[in-house]
Design brief:
heterodimer, A: 400 residues, alpha/beta, Glucose Oxidase, domain 1, Rossmann fold, 2 domains, ten-stranded mixed β-sheet, B: 1069 residues, Dna Ligase, domain 1, Carbamoyl Phosphate Synthetase, Chain A, domain 4, 7 domains, nine-stranded mixed β-sheet, seven-stranded antiparallel β-sheet, 36 helices, 36% helix
Chain lengths: 400, 1069
């Protein structure tokens, strides 16, 4: 079946329909990761957006449920150049076509994704429609497209109820350490697939209680902490600071999430209260932006955002450069930053935009990129250890 | 971290002659690095024995030494030039080994010279099998169970413990020389003994066989501050077991999920960090296909063939960045030259699919085994880019120029499904065609996968191509089907063949329906940032991104495609220089080429680079968009020449010599007419199509005769026949491939072979010099030792040659370059062959005479005259130096290849000896080619009857040098009778000790074995030669070469006092 992608500027791409049979309007963004399409699809930060993958061959290794970063795919639509006819991977559970259909996500394939990317790069992120209606009328559609906003999407993606993820009590529970996996023929023939390899070599977070505010959290944030031994309690985005602090966490983690940070006025107010407590805080992406807004800084929208697995960020504390996983359309404005409150801790090497803040006189640091990776490079996973160190230090202070 | 201020003068070590496993990629890397160093104001001293390279140009480095790459020579250069640093990581394994030796011997430290980039300690950790294994164990990175052994017994014992098959990898060798897989003890003993001998340190790794696992490579960069990135990852379609240089490789990986991709990426970064590499590095992994188990196969702590490929596949200039890192810069300080917006610390994101295919030399070595193993055999490679895998594969196929253009190009249709399954077990260069036929016969993916271990995803992609072939054959050809066929890059001629239409009809149908190629940019960032470098590839069904450029005159420079025997790096040298010259003259330059190893495909050589197959259709797509004012074909070897006619049909004027004149030189009848008009003699001959006709001509001329196809390079298919039977055999071989042109049969003349390259402006000619071949006629000019200036012919002969060159160039209306080969029999000069184009001797003659031939030819093509360019026409005064070009072979890499020299070219590369005297130049040339004698002072002579007289003279000279001579029965008799003491050894089938035992005993320096006239059918001679080569013994098959060698050895005292020549001081004339 034919499908069409119609953009706010009147551009129409004709392709083939994939996924669920429905028409959607959404904000069109692109992601430059070459692998990891499933992690992209299941990243809640894409709620309210339709994602175009710039890598042209998608679906090659099918869908492995283990790799999902949340319970379902969040983008409103999926835009690809070519979907593989067959998936090929020892862990694959289904094809990407089946996955999109069963989760009611429509999409379009066979379009010139590079041409689309260039439009978004030049004109900035814009809204668009994916439809299978061949009799579309662009003039009627454009006003609808212009009217679309992602709105308060955090509410849509956060968990309904608080829940707990127990930290591992031994490293073995994490599965084989990366590099130590060993093929077991018998298990394989019995349908058992090896667990994905773990990176963690030390249970430095054992016994630590971490409160994770779920603003649309990717699963690997909690997993990264639990794998280090932390007990993680996940709270819905609407939870009050008071309720979180009442549980006496050793540290608070603010997650990634979708949408315009300024829409989250209620959450920002609660985060200010968390800031005022002395509990160590580590925040990622939306959490990082909300902490900045809560402490008087400003955010603005990037022309077309950073979405991919290849952005260099520089740790200003050490001067080291790491390749990071990124997915954000908004960024903290460091020009207006009050240095007595926070100073830049990371910058993007390419465009110099802010990638992280260290809060003055506080046990708080926040990053714009994704140390939990999935998809993308694992280079900055050391930040979880830095967070645990911070909790340990805080504990040492309190004992004194 | 800013640049290290202590680095002011750097010695860059090149990789030497082109051999299998070490090809043009190091000229690319070295050139890029030298330019990058000069950009920083560093004085660059370059040493490389290979004169065909661009890096040995004086505009690339400040001081250029085309000298043998030996420790002694390097030490001498360091003493003379006093560089403060040495950069060894850009010259391949050869350069790295030399850098290591300099550091290990303490020479660098005692001369206050620093090793730039990666340290000696790091190199040792990465290259020494044991240290590497220990390092990997320390950081928890797995290696296959393995043991380094120094003798065969230990190897046998270890293999018993871990079980067969086992893989054998000798330490410190190129392209896996001497390695292999042993399935049992007999094979193990054989391969291991050989590997121990070839290893520089006498070590071989015996390891668990991981054949069949996915082979994945990562190209990584690290700076001195510890920042690391991966430039690219690549997946080999052929699983572990086939050397990555011989595998079909795709970038980025296609069948890895993010979990596997990142697991291996993190591992690669762990490894490069632990090894503390600064610069570029290649890490190879084996990944179990159904688990997360992986092994690190090896690490190359330097730029490599794979890094050249990764650079071209992504647009990330690895060598350039590696050079900057060596100077102390960190990745976040180095700008990405493609985008101008991002930095070198940014990982490239691809939005296309890249396929690399090896160019294997089995068309040259018909007796060789086609099996692919861990020993690399490819001489070169092609790369192609498309939006889909099928298209990239189809483009790569036709870029190979090996008569293949789709998956039906090899016919296995007579095999049944069962037979095909059997055939699939054979791992060779035809495997994808066998898979295609198996798919046609309904063999399922699982079965094919189980036999080949090739991933299902790739099998499915081959199936897509097979299905398209079937759909086209079945018809009808709808617009939709045509669109789909073009999307996966079926060329018009294949569609025409399958649909029974003509190519013109297909083209018309495409144009009528708006199905035309679009061009996309390679920008390192998947369009995320605006890029300024016009590096393009084609695809169908997309928007075209080519930017309309200014109103400068546009010239199309056609490259020379993959490196193969007979068409090597020298044509890239010519293409690049022509491009620069056109650019200087104010032209906009456009290069089309498909070879990722070359300088010409670097993104900043031409104004625009199209990475495309060099077929008429692919070129026409570019012509349609660019509408060039002209094209030059005379610099790109036969690949470009072959496109002449098509370009003219497209309405593109050929700049320089006209197509009809090129034809006249190749067409026997037209050429004979020209010779008659100009009164130049040539060997009598005729043109034929069939064996019957050939025999008729041969009878008329009398044997021996030369038989060869027209329009080929490097004497492909050329043979000397001495009987009807041989004519029949050769004609059969030549006619296996349909010939568009007649076959030539000429009287074989024995004399001195001479060669000139000249520039002609239509009126005047300029001959930089005359070269003389050491080997008499019958040995291909590319395989001959070539001496400039000609040293044994009279002035009269030289004058005649100059005169004939002038007449021929004029008669052929040459505008630009011409290459002519002559035979001098006494004072009589005959012409053998005229090529109105660049040749393999152009770079070397330019460098030694200081006359920039390619630049002059380009100026002449544009319209200048030789006089206007300030040159006196005619034969130029001889230079002050003697330069001797020595061919270099890769026979040890190609099992079963016949090594004896003949009219068909077999060498893969060359080196140069340059000095004030003939003897010193000759000595240097042999040394540069790796012939460093004497060692044991024992040799074997076994020659055919006709050579016995010369064998006596040569044997006597070797005897005088203290050599013990062994000889087979009749040769020994002849020698002893003439008073040259020779010990008789038995032939192979006789009782031990035989000649083979002697060779295998490793106490032999040299074998002189001349094959019986024509093709040697005696297995004896063939076996002796092969055994010598495979055990690392020098083997000479022509008496002239042997004589040259003994002359060189008689002058061995030169070794103690070599004079170094900085060719940058040879004045441009």
């Amino acid at each position: 079946m034919k499908a069409f992608l119609i953009l706010e500027d009147g551009t129409v791409f004709e392709g083939t329909h994939i996924g669920a049979d429905k028409e959607i309007i959404s904000e069109i963004v692109f992601n430059t990761s070459m692998a990891g399409y499933l992690e992209v699809l299941t990243d809640p930060s894409y709620a309210g957006q339709a994602v175009c993958m710039t890598y042209p061959l998608i679906g090659n290794y099918g869908v492995c449920k283990d790799d999902c970063e949340s319970r379902k795919p969040w983008p409103d639509g999926f835009i690809v150049r070519e979907l593989s006819r067959i998936p090929s991977n020892f862990r694959q559970d289904m094809t990407i076509q089946e996955y999109l259909e069963s989760n009611d996500v429509p999409g379009i394939a066979g379009i010139d994704t590079r041409a689309l990317t260039k439009i978004l790069r030049e004109k900035g992120t814009m809204n668009g429609m994916i439809t299978t209606n061949e009799n579309y009328n662009v003039d009627d559609i454009i006003p609808k497209l212009k009217a679309y906003t992602t709105g308060k999407v955090v509410e849509k993606v956060t968990c309904d109820n608080k829940y707990e993820i127990k930290g591992v009590s031994s490293l073995e529970e994490n599965g084989p350490l990366s590099g130590s996996a060993s093929f077991n023929k018998e298990a394989y023939e019995n349908g058992i697939r090896e667990k994905k390899p773990a990176l963690v070599k030390e249970l430095n977070g054992k016994g630590k209680k971490v409160a994770l505010l779920d603003l649309g959290a990717k699963k690997n944030i909690a997993d990264s902490l639990a794998a280090r031994g932390c007990d993680v309690t996940v709270y819905p985005a609407g939870t009050s600071a008071k309720a979180i602090l009442a549980d006496a966490p050793d540290g608070i983690m603010l997650s990634n999430g979708p949408g315009d940070p300024k829409e989250c006025t209620g959450i920002i107010a609660e985060i200010k209260k968390l800031y005022d407590s002395d509990v160590p805080i580590f925040a990622i992406c939306l959490g990082h932006q909300l902490m900045a807004l809560a402490t008087g800084a400003d955010t603005y929208k990037l022309k077309y955002g950073h979405r991919g697995g290849n952005h260099p960020v520089k740790d200003l504390q050490t001067g080291r450069v790491y390749i990071s996983s990124q997915n954000h359309g908004y960024v903290v404005d460091t020009d207006k930053l009050d240095k007595s409150i926070a100073v830049p801790a990371f910058i993007n090497v390419n465009d110099g935009t802010n990638e992280g803040l260290a809060y003055t006189g506080k046990n708080i640091f926040t990053v714009q990129f994704h140390p939990e990776a999935c998809p993308g490079p694992q280079d900055s996973s050391y930040l979880f250890d830095r967070f645990i160190d911070m909790m340990n230090k805080q504990e040492g202070m309190e004992e004194k | 971290m800013p640049k290290n201020p202590n680095v002011k003068k750097v010695l860059v070590i090149g990789s030497g002659p082109i051999v299998i496993g070490q090809a043009a990629e190091f000229d690319y890397a070295g050139t890029q690095a030298c330019r990058s160093l000069k950009e920083e104001g560093i004085e660059v001293v370059l040493v490389n024995s290979n004169p065909a390279t661009i890096m040995t140009d004086k505009d690339i480095a400040d001081k250029v030494y085309i000298e043998p790459l030996t420790l002694e020579v390097l030490e001498q250069i360091i003493e003379k030039e006093k560089p403060d640093s040495v950069l060894p990581t850009l010259g391949g394994q050869a350069g790295l080994n030399l850098g290591m030796e300099l550091a290990e011997s303490g020479f660098l430290a005692s001369h206050n010279v620093a090793l730039l980039g990666t340290t000696a300690k790091t190199i040792k950790k990465a290259e020494d099998r044991l240290e590497f294994k220990e390092t990997m164990e320390k950081i928890g990175e797995p290696c296959a169970a393995s043991l380094v052994v120094e003798n065969v017994e230990d190897g046998v014992e270890f293999a018993k413990k871990i079980g067969y098959p086992v893989v054998l990898r000798p330490a410190y060798t190129l392209g896996g020389s001497g390695g292999g897989i042993a399935h049992n003890q007999v094979e193990l003993e054989d391969i291991l003994a050989n590997g121990l001998r070839l290893s520089r340190v006498g070590q071989v790794l015996v390891e668990r066989c991981i054949a069949g696992w996915k082979e994945i490579e990562y190209e990584v960069m690290r700076d001195s501050a510890g920042n690391c990135i991966t430039v690219c990852n690549m997946e080999n379609i052929d699983p572990v077991g086939v050397h990555t240089g011989d595998s079909i490789v795709v970038a980025p990986s296609q069948t890895l999920s993010d979990k596997e991709y990142q697991m291996l990426r993190s591992s690669a970064l762990n490894i490069i960090s632990e090894l503390e590499i600064t610069g570029g590095c290649n890490v190879q992994f084996a990944l179990h296909p159904t688990s997360f188990e992986y092994c690190v196969i090896e690490v190359n702590p330097r730029v490599s063939r794979s890094s050249a490929l990764a650079s071209k596949a992504t647009g990330y200039p690895i060598a350039k960045v590696a050079a900057k890192i060596a100077l102390g810069y960190t990745l976040d300080e180095i700008k990405n030259a493609i985008t101008g917006k991002t930095y070198a610390s940014f990982e490239p994101a691809l939005d296309y699919c890249v396929v690399k295919m090896p160019r294997l030399p089995f068309d040259k070595f018909i007796t060789a085994k086609r099996t692919l193993t861990t020993q690399m055999k490819a001489t070169g490679e092609v790369m192609s880019i498309c939006q889909n895998f099928e298209g990239a594969l189809m483009k790569a196929l036709r870029s190979l120029e090996q008569h293949v253009d789709c998956l039906r190009s090899y016919d296995f249709s007579d095999l049944s499904a069962e037979e095909l399954k059997e055939r699939l077990k054979k791992v060779d260069d035809q495997r994808i065609y066998v898979i295609a036929e198996a798919l046609r016969k309904g063999v399922d993916y699982d079965t094919i996968h189980e036999i080949t271990m090739i991933d299902h995803w790739f099998i499915d992609k081959l199936a897509v191509i097979v299905e398209m072939e079937d759909a086209l054959e079945k018809g009808p050809l709808t617009v939709e089907l045509l669109k789909e066929a073009k999307r996966i890059e079926f060329p018009d001629n294949v569609i025409a063949r399958l649909t029974g239409k003509t190519e013109e009809e297909i083209k018309k149908m495409r144009y009528d329906n708006g199905i035309t190629a679009a061009f996309k940019m390679v920008d390192t960032c998947a369009a995320e940032f605006e890029a300024s470098t016009p590096y393009y590839y084609s695809c169908f069904g997309s928007e075209c991104e080519v930017v309309k450029t200014n109103d400068k005159k546009k010239v199309l420079v056609l490259g020379s495609g993959p490196i193969r025997i007979g068409q090597g790096i020298e044509f890239d040298y010519c293409s690049v220089h022509a491009t620069w010259a056109f650019s200087k003259a104010g032209y906009e330059t456009i290069i089309i080429n498909n070879n990722p190893e070359t300088v010409s495909t670097d993104f900043d050589i031409a104004d625009k680079l199209y990475f495309e197959p060099l077929t008429p259709e692919d070129v026409e797509n570019i012509v349609n968009i660019e509408k060039p004012d002209g094209a030059v074909v005379q610099f790109g070897g036969q690949t470009a020449i072959k496109l002449t006619e098509s370009l003219m049909k497209m309405g593109v004027p050929i700049l320089g010599t006209k197509a009809e004149d090129v034809d006249a030189a190749e067409d026997r009848e037209l050429f004979d007419k020209i010779l008659e008009e100009t009164q130049i003699p040539r060997a009598a001959g005729g043109t034929v199509y069939t064996a019957e006709e050939a025999k008729e001509v041969a009878h008329r001329l009398g044997y021996p005769v030369l038989v060869r196809p027209s329009y080929v390079l490097g004497g492909q298919g050329m043979q000397i026949a001495i009987s009807d039977k041989e004519i029949e055999e050769f004609m059969e071989i030549i006619n296996r491939i349909a010939q568009d042109h007649p076959i030539l049969v000429d009287k074989y003349l024995q004399g001195k072979e001479l060669e000139v390259d000249a520039v002609c402006d239509g009126t005047d000619i300029l001959i930089p010099g005359i070269m003389e071949h050491i080997e008499r006629t019958g040995v291909h000019s590319g395989d001959s030792i070539s001496v400039y200036p000609a040293h044994t012919v009279s002035n009269k002969v030289k004058e005649t040659i100059a005169e004939y060159t002038r007449r021929l160039a004029k008669a052929l209306h040459v505008k630009g370059l011409i290459n002519i080969q002559f035979i001098a029999v006494g004072e009589e000069v005959y012409v053998i062959e005229v090529n109105p184009r660049s040749s393999r001797t152009v770079p070397y003659i330019s460098k030694v005479t200081g006359i920039p031939i390619v630049d002059l030819a380009t100026e002449v093509i544009i319209g200048k005259t030789i006089k206007e360019l300030g040159y006196e026409p005619g034969l130029q005064k001889e230079a002050d130096y003697v330069a001797i070009k020595m061919p270099v072979f890769s026979f040890e890499k190609i099992r079963g290849a016949e090594i004896s020299l003949g009219p068909e070219m077999k060498s893969t590369g060359e080196c140069l000896g340059i000095a004030k005297t003939f003897n010193e130049a000759l000595y240097k040339a042999f040394l540069g080619a790796g012939i460093d004698l004497p060692k044991h002072k024992q040799m074997i002579i076994t020659v055919k009857d006709a050579d016995k007289g010369e064998a006596i003279e040569i044997g006597r000279r070797f005897e005088k040098l203290g050599y013990t001579i062994y000889a087979t029965r009749s040769t020994a008799a002849a020698l002893n009778e003439a008073g040259v003491k020779a010990r008789k050894v038995n032939k192979i089938q006789q009782e031990s000790p035989t000649v083979m035992d002697l060779i295998l005993g490793h106490k032999i320096d040299l074998v002189i074995d001349t094959p019986t006239q024509g093709r040697d059918k005696s297995r004896d001679g063939f076996l002796i030669r092969r055994t010598a080569i495979e055990t690392g013994v020098n083997c000479i098959t022509a008496m002239d070469t042997a004589r040259a060698l003994v002359t060189s050895l008689e002058n061995a005292e030169i070794k103690e006092n070599l004079t170094l020549v900085d060719i940058a001081t040879i004045a441009t004339r």
